[in-house]
């Protein structure tokens, strides 16, 4: 019997990401299982130059910068049967039209979760050592701290509160296991027994905030989590506590957070904010108790190859008639970022 024809695949993303997602060895693997043009990267589905490619496409390989796959796009892609997303969340990419279309969706979100969890672990360890404050003091005084100044410093028994047993949250829980932390968890979809298996004690959100030295956010950005940390809940965190956010800025009331940080009562590590980026006049750029980074926790640089590899492996499965491993289902959208 003749071998089946490889699926026709088309790239749809900002082309700046393509060489990092698919360096030559991965592009070779793609070309072996799919009929694709590496030089064609669609950025606008209404562009006449993309019309022929879209009409023939069975698989879209998407990434950051891909326009939404709305009803008009799907009408122009009658053969489309899979969207393989070489990035994290597909929330802004897919909608009801695609789910009704029956197209399979896969995401490399699992691969993108790894660097976020690693970044968070690093920030937890540095926060426990009070590294950011010591850096500021050392810059100003050029003097080593006294034993009295470091009496409350260290990571032994430090209470870390993880909000959200998402992919990032679960990976972080694994990374925390070798350390001498007391780990607390809040997630409404996790049982006490499952939390124990993950190495954490399950608490209500309010109790987690009250009892944690360091609080780290890993919940999805959905209506139920909007402003979940408002002024009242931020006020439950102990004086001198640390808040880490690598999830989304919308999960925290920005005005209440700014008030807490300007007062100096709390410390924060913020890789995401609302708005993003912050306006130039925001005090958070200048506060010594705020460590602000420009949304770098997720995959960057050579970490993008991991996302591309996940997509290549998914396309290999698809071409072989095997089930997708990283498939996203419509029912998942109420709980994922």
Task: Describe this protein's structure.
With 337 residues, this protein is an alpha/beta fold. The protein is built from 13 helices and 13 strands. The strands form 2 sheets. It has a 7-stranded parallel beta sheet with strand order 8-7-6-9-10-11-12, with helices on both faces. Helix 2 packs parallel to helix 13 (304-320) and helix 6 (109-128) crosses helix 8 (167-176). The model has no long low-confidence stretch (mean pLDDT 95).
How is the topology of this model organized?
Elements: E1 9-12, H1 18-21, H2 24-33, E2 41-42, H3 48-56, E3 59-62, H4 71-75, E4 82-85, H5 96-101, E5 104-107, H6 109-128, H7 131-141, E6 159-163, H8 167-176, E7 182-186, H9 192-197, E8 201-202, H10 205-211, E9 214-217, H11 231-234, E10 242-245, H12 254-263, E11 267-270, E12 290-292, H13 304-320, E13 327-328
Parallel strand pairs: 1-2, 1-3, 3-4, 4-5, 6-7, 6-9, 7-8, 9-10, 10-11, 11-12
Antiparallel strand pairs: 5-13
Major beta sheet, strand line-up: 8-7-6-9-10-11-12
Beta-strand level of the residues, as a percent range? 5-15%
The description of the largest β-sheet is: 7 strands, parallel
Can you count the helices?
13
Alpha-carbon distance between the termini? 44 Å
Class derived from helix and strand content: alpha/beta
Low-confidence blocks of residues: none
């Amino acid at each position: 019997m003749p071998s089946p024809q490889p699926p026709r695949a088309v790239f749809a993303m900002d082309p700046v990401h393509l060489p990092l997602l698919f360096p030559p060895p991965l592009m070779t693997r793609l070309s072996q299982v799919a009929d694709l043009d590496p030089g064609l990267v669609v950025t606008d589905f209404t562009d006449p130059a993309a019309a022929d490619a879209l009409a023939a496409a069975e698989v879209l390989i998407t990434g950051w910068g891909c326009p939404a796959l709305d009803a008009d796009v799907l009408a122009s892609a009658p053969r489309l049967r899979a969207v393989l997303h070489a990035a994290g969340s597909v929330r802004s990419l897919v909608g009801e039209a695609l789910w009704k279309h029956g197209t399979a969706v896969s995401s490399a979100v699992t691969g993108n979760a790894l660097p976020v969890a690693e970044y968070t672990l690093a920030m937890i360890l540095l926060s426990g050592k009070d590294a950011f404050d010591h850096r500021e003091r050392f810059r100003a005084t050029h003097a080593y701290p006294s034993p009295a100044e470091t009496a409350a410093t260290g990571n032994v028994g430090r209470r870390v509160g993880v909000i959200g047993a998402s992919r990032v949250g679960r990976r972080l829980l694994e990374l925390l296991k070798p350390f001498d932390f007391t780990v607390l968890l809040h997630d409404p979809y996790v049982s006490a027994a499952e939390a124990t298996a993950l190495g954490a004690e399950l608490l209500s959100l309010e109790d987690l905030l009250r009892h944690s030295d360091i609080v780290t956010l890993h919940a999805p950005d959905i209506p139920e989590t909007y402003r979940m940390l408002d002024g009242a809940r931020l006020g439950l965190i102990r004086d001198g506590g640390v808040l880490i956010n690598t999830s989304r800025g919308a999960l925290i009331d920005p005005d209440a957070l700014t008030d807490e940080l300007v007062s100096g009562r709390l410390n924060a590590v913020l890789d995401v904010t609302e708005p993003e980026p912050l306006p130039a006049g925001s005090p958070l750029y200048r506060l010594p108790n705020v460590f602000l980074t420009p949304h770098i926790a997720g995959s960057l640089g050579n970490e993008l190859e991991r996302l591309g590899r996940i997509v290549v492996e998914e396309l290999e499965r698809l071409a072989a008639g095997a089930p997708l491993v990283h498939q996203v289902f419509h029912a998942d959208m109420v709980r994922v970022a």
